[in-house]
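Re-run with default settings, no changes from the original entry. Doing this only to confirm the output is reproducible before filing.
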Amino acid sequence: MSFLIIRVLTLSADLQHLTCEIADALVTIDRSKIPFKHFKPGVGPYGEPQLIKDVSKILNSKKDLKGLVITKRTPDLLIKGLWALEFKIARPFGDNGIQAESWSVNLLHPYEGNVSSIGDCVKLLKLNLPEKKAVIVIGYEHEPPEISLKPLIESFEIISTKVMHITLGARIEENRKGLIHPIHQQLTVFAWEVLTN
């Protein structure tokens, strides 16, 4: 294997680099102006399965990831030999500008077997895969935020580590502003490596 290929695979293996690539992919989806279902154009209203599918297509178009990225039921996205990723979306407001009901539950429900990010961490730890494991949260806010995601993200970390005793790597954040949706005006991709306890 040449030095260039080894270097490229090392870059792709870095969670900071991958988080940046995911954030850029979301901006690409946003710039396409293709609406999800009957919602206003922009990436913000996309559902999780559709969003992950589109992100995987964009990641697979990258030279260093071509053919390595596949969507699955568990994990949500697998980058062969590199990462097993679980995704969640945090949207305080709906497409209509009204505060969403129970929008934070997707991250904080602290029980094994559920569909929260905490449940995803537990699920990732049980997967018998050689890939590193990480949980990704895609958050949408107004610019500036009307409801900040910061308390939710910090609560996720506290419940995961102090209550559920899950070992998380350092939080990585990639922010992108200037999205086309009138409510989901900026996004932040949060990522944590889920480490073996």
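The chain has six helices and seven strands. The longest helix spans residues 15-31.
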